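Example record used in the benchmark description.
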Amino acid sequence: MKAGTIKNLMVRETSPRIILEETETGEKVVLDERKGPFAIRQGAPLEVFVYRRDQEHWIGSPHRPFLLPGQIGTLEVVGNIRSGTFLDWGLAGDLFLPVSEQRDRRGTLKRGHNVLVGVTVTPEQDRVIGTLNIYDLLSTQSPYARNDSVDGIVYELNPDLGAFVAVNSQFHGMIPQRELYEKLHIGQAITGRVNRVREDGRLELSLRMEKHEQMDDDSERILKRLIEAGGRLPLHDRSDPEDIRREMQMSKAAFKRALGRLWKNGQVILEDDGIRLA
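Model output (structure tokens):
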């Protein structure tokens, strides 16, 4: 028997508790039946998700948890004790998130809050637990290539490096700081483009399209911002890159490319201290 697996077991007893048995080893599993009615008859097989509530007892649930071992997602905090936090993962027995797996979030996980968490199995005790060390659950063996579109969840933000992303909740991804033109938050779902597959298999991502495609979007963004600002902006091709990033959520190079297109199309007028609608 191994925690966190789905097993097909035999119903051996139905009263006072429902006891299941693995026929090969004879190991007994107590059925967790507090999550709704289902038909049970002695001698019939039953497929269950197996986990431990303590070192002595196996628990089996006919229901699947919200997250299986190796998966990443958002769960609700339902309680705290000195040694850790309990999360609702859809079973009668809550998922335990030990303090040792909480990184720098200890004391911040309050009842009712949602937290991005991974599910793993401890090798020593063979128990299913939650972890905030999501990096350790991700693989470098992704099927993606440059310019592929991917979905992911932001699980860590580093002001020097960028945003770390769990691509499809399975693979290592990162949006470098130079590619971050908007604020992201932990737990945010993103759709990005693979900018580069590194030699170690990790994916370098961008939230922007390729240059020739992105220019259309950037041009529209400049026009929209000009209209919102009353037809004029104090930005030009000599503006500070940080001013452009803050105002337009794009790099100075992207701004100049889009601005050049708008000027050639006669849609904007370039002035010494800004731009205005034509």
